[in-house]
Structure formats: structure tokens, C-alpha cells
Amino acid sequence: MIKYHILRKIISVILSNAFMCLWLIVPLFDREVSFYGSISFIFVLYFIAGLPFYLIGGVPFSILMDWLWLKYMTRFDIKWFYRLPIQIVAYGLGGILLYSLFMLIIGGSDMFNDFVSYLPFLKLSVCGAVTAFLMNELIGFFISKLTTNASEAAQL
Fold it and tell me: Keyword Transmembrane: yes or no (predicted)?
């Protein structure tokens, strides 16, 4: 069961990375004149550059969030339509935390001297974390529907 859970997290992270890469592609009319990269080149570049951050930070963070949710929040009997906004906010804050941690490791404390230039990247980190969470929820929904349909078909 744990292998399935981790595999689902990895698949959702890869899909959300691909979605964010498609979102970041600059249209042809907005590009610099001297830029010769094709759309597939940009996609592959963003995908290769972003995937380690998603895998190193996103998968363990997502597993930690699921563990914290099961440990502390299940005792409050929160309905699913309240659970979703709470977890979206938690994943968004986690995206900010992970991005800040990666920037401290990569760039040192210079990040806090020029904080305004990092704000667009903070927005991207929130979008990436929330997208990974939503992809994970969609994958879980589709798998539960498939297993329900398969069990109903087996009973016939």
C-alpha cells in the first residue's frame, strides 16, 4: 500500500511538472527576437530543470502533509468541501517554504536582500505545489472510480 501511495505521488508530481512547463511556455509573439528555441526545446528544458525540485521537495512534502492530515485533522471530522481549501492553503504555504529553502541552499542569504525579484518565483512555487496536490487528488479519484467499477463488474 505504501508503494502505491508513493508511486501515486511521483506520478502526480511528474504530471504537475509537465502542466507547469506547458503553462510557462512563452508564445511566439512574446519572445525575444534573438531567441531561437522551439516550444519542444523550452518544454524539455523546463521539465528537466523542474523535475528534481518536484521530486526532491514535492514528494516528501506531500507524504508529510498526508501523514499530518491523518494524524491531526481526521479527528475533527472535516467534510470534503472544507478539506479541499484547507489542504490547498497548506500546500501553497508548503510551496513557499520549499522554494525558500531551495533558494537558501542554492543562493545563500542573498535571497532576502532582493526579495522583490523573487516574488514571481514564489507565485510559481505556490502554483506548482497546488497543482501537484490537485493532480494527486484527481489520480486518487480516477483510481477509486476504476476500482469501484471493476469490483461491480466482478460481482456480475
Answer: yes
The Cα 10–Cα 5 span in angstroms is 9
pTM of the model: 0.76
Task: Write the CB contacts of 27 (distance below 8 Å, at least 6 apart in sequence).
Answer: none
The Cβ-side half-sphere exposure at 86, using a 13 Å CA radius, reads: 13
Contact 95, 62 (CB under 8 A): no
State yes or no: pLDDT of 18 exceeds 80: yes
Query: How far apart are alpha carbons 99 and 94 in whole angstroms?
Result: 8
Question: Alpha carbon of 153 to those of 140, 141, 145, 148: distances in Å?
Answer: 20, 18, 12, 9
Kindly list the domain boundaries of the chain, sorted by start residue: 2-155
pLDDT digits (tens, 9 = 90+) for 90-119: 999 998 888 888 888 877 666 667 767 777
The CA-CA-CA angle for residues 56, 88, 127, to 5°, reads 60
